[in-house]
Amino acid sequence: xxxxxxxxxxxxxxxxxxxxxxxTTNYVGTVxxxxxxxxxxxxxxxxxxxxxxxxxxxDFEIHVRPAERE
Length: 70
Hints:
There is one protein chain. This protein is mainly β and 70 residues long. It has a single domain, classed as CATH 2.40.240.100. It is built from no helices and six strands. A hairpin with a 4-residue loop joins strand 2 (11-17) and strand 3. The chain is 0% helix and 60% strand. It has strands at 2-4, 11-17, 22-27, 37-40, 43-55, 58-66. The chain has a six-stranded mixed beta sheet with strand order 1-4-5-6-2-3, with no helix packed on it.
């Protein structure tokens, strides 16, 4: 199942890409977990790491890799 990350209310994520850049996005729905597929920046990604953050205005941190490698 592929989920769409969008700029709407919900959980706030810091997303880290393999190339070193990161973005912040919101996602409405169940909490994203390792192995989930998401669509972000018009591409499909697989979550490789996820953790809860204890920061103001940020709920979770995830690391992603391109889904095309599967």
